[in-house]
Amino acid sequence: MATYGLDDWETSMATLALLTQYSSAEFAIRPFLVKYPEATIAQMLTWSRSEQVDLRRLAS
Questions:
Q1: pLDDT of residue 11
Q2: How much is the mean pLDDT over the chain?
Q3: Which of 42, 46, 47 is nearest to 19 (CA)?
Q4: What is the DSSP secondary-structure string of 17-43?
Q5: What local confidence, expressed as pLDDT, does residue 25 receive?
Q6: How far apart are CA 54 and CA 3, in angstroms?
Q7: Residues 6+ apart with CB under 8 A from 32
Q8: pLDDT score, position 30
Q9: What would the mean pLDDT of 34-56 be, rounded to a whole number?
């Protein structure tokens, strides 16, 4: 994800949200935190309030 998606933040966040239901995305989110810290943290705060346990896990 980070190799090919780093320049497309919106699509990558949607993809990570989908993929985390089936596998861990904790390592894939790290390059986005480095390149887009404010936007990614804001997204993670949104995910932390999700009803989906997988998104809350990704946010933590």
A1: 95
A2: 92
A3: 47
A4: HHHTTTS--TTTTHHHHHHSHHHHHHH
A5: 84
A6: 23
A7: 2, 6, 9, 12, 13, 40
A8: 92
A9: 96
Sign, CA torsion 25/36/34/45: negative
- Between CA 23 and CA 59 the distance in angstroms is 14
- Residues present in the chain in total: 60
Q: What's the CA gap between 56 and 5, in Å, rounded?
A: 22
Token pair 């997988």 is found at 54
Q: Over 70: is that where the pLDDT of 2 sits?
A: no
Phi first, then psi: give them for residue 36, nearest 5 degrees.
Answer: -130, 65
Of the candidates 45, 46, 4, the one whose C-alpha atom is nearest the C-alpha of residue 28 is 4
Q: What is the pTM of this model?
A: 0.86
